[in-house]
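Cross-check.
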Amino acid sequence: MERRRVFDTWGLALLLACAGVAGAPRPARADDQTAARQAIQAAMQRYAELGRTGPVAATVAMFTADGELLEPGMPPIQGRPAIQSFLAPLAAKFTVESEVMTTDALDIYGSAAYQWGTYQQTAGPIGQPGDTYAGRYVAEWRHEPGGQWRLRRLMMQPVQAPRKN
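Predicted model, tokenized:
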């Protein structure tokens, strides 16, 4: 009886361990983490720079084909064509004077990464002084077969009303 209990205990432990390994994402190895971390940080800085300088098509290309842009009070903007349709009219009417995106946390699991941070942007109608916007963001990244990290999902969440400059 005691032998059966030991077997059942070890069998259950092995089953739970296998289920946990199979079901949970695995962190990348340390050397892969460093390269991925640098690439993702650079990609987010490029995204911020493109918000300021354009073109919109380059910003849209930073998303996966099925990427999503999540903005407050709106349904998800899904896919590159929809993101293009959302951003192009904004870029035609508004200018971004500055944009800073700072990473607070970055977790990498193989070909997926999750980045949390803050942003501050000064923007306004073309030819007029801009207002300053600040908030938080969460980005889900995917490492594509060609080696590039692309945004799978980006959520922007303002945390304060625009500050007049």
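Strands lie at 63-70, 77-78, 94-109, 112-125, 131-143, 149-158, 163-164. Residues 93 and 144 are 33 Å apart (CA to CA). Passed to J.P. for a second look.
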